[in-house]
User: Which sequence fits this backbone?
């Protein structure tokens, strides 16, 4: 049964692949699972039909037969659990890959989201200029630790996993900030993620929503 | 094999149960699994031995034989996957419970963490008074949606699950802010969590670290 995911009807990042549907598209491409996309407007996202699927009125959602899921982390995990390619078979390695998924979403992403809020929602506030460097230093604390752990490795723990998929996408949200460039091994890590054929297919598909042209 | 978790040697919240080891203690108590605790100082948390266990130098960690895990979400999930009591057996219900775990950690907790940062780390900044209400309104957006979904139910989706455990603990981080009181069904939901015998045992155990007295 082909699953259906939801994505923004009007891409707020102009097709730069930063919205959370990208994580799900990428996971689906990694495991080779075809999917359909239903686009939703900002208005429709907060209406009862969508809130029944996603209690917080966001994207992405995932529908497959009787099952409806929300939260990109949960959806990627659901895909990874049922299809080969995103989680190791060995039990301990699998549990560690799941640790990295949670680390991406609950340890690395929160300060990055805080920066996004500071830049977008508090853009015109008097404190913006003074506060932003403090927020960015909190991101650097996390990136320094992450960089130390990654070292010279290609991926965080052995082969590419759903943990890397999440971490790479979370780090991509720093695009344009220049912060990632301060950590050459993390920049290379993100570039390795972006170079994966599955990432490229997913990126082209979300860009096509913005340009109105189908991906080639 | 009895697992060992780590917790703060000096409880920064004075034993109020807000540190993330509480989530793991609670999960272990729910499934009836005995555990050991190793206390770590703030200094030791950033030293190589602990960083080998936790790349971001935080607590909790979880060690069981050859396996070492970090991130409270991943540890609770690991426990829930291997022991009855925290995830439904039915596949779709299980996937939805996992959605709530991720929602607690990646949708509800980030604005709550932002408030914590504003109150603790930016306490003396000139913008504190003006900015805090903005941050709190972002929390209210999430709580309003969560309250709407919970309605009159006891738990978020059927029986109590790891999703409720995470959500209740994330909401507890609003203690003392008065914000939770604005949502009577969420306050009652959190109180139901705190009333669970497993929660009480876990709370007593972490409090004992602070008071220096063993839980009775």
Assistant:
């Amino acid at each position: 049964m082909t699953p259906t995911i939801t994505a923004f009807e009007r891409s707020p990042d102009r097709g730069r692949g930063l919205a959370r549907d990208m994580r799900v598209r990428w996971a689906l491409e990694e495991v080779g699972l075809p999917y359909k996309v239903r686009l939703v407007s900002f208005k429709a996202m907060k209406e009862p039909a969508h809130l029944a699927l996603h209690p917080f009125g966001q994207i992405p959602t995932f529908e497959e037969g009787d099952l409806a899921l929300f939260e990109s982390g949960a959806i990627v995990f659901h895909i990874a659990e049922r299809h080969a390619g995103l989680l190791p078979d060995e039990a301990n390695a699998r549990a560690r890959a799941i640790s990295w998924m949670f680390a991406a979403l609950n340890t690395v992403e929160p300060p990055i989201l805080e920066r996004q809020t500071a830049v977008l929602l508090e853009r015109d506030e008097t404190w913006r200029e003074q506060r932003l460097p403090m927020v960015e230093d909190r991101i650097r604390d996390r990136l320094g630790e992450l960089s130390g752990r990654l070292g010279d490795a290609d991926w965080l723990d052995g082969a590419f996993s759903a943990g890397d998929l999440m971490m790479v996408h979370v780090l991509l949200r720093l695009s344009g900030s220049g912060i990632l460039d301060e950590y050459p091994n993390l920049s290379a890590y993100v570039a390795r993620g972006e170079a994966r054929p599955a990432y490229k297919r997913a990126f082209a598909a979300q860009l096509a929503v913005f340009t109105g042209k189908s991906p080639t």
About this structure: Chain A has a mean pLDDT of 94.
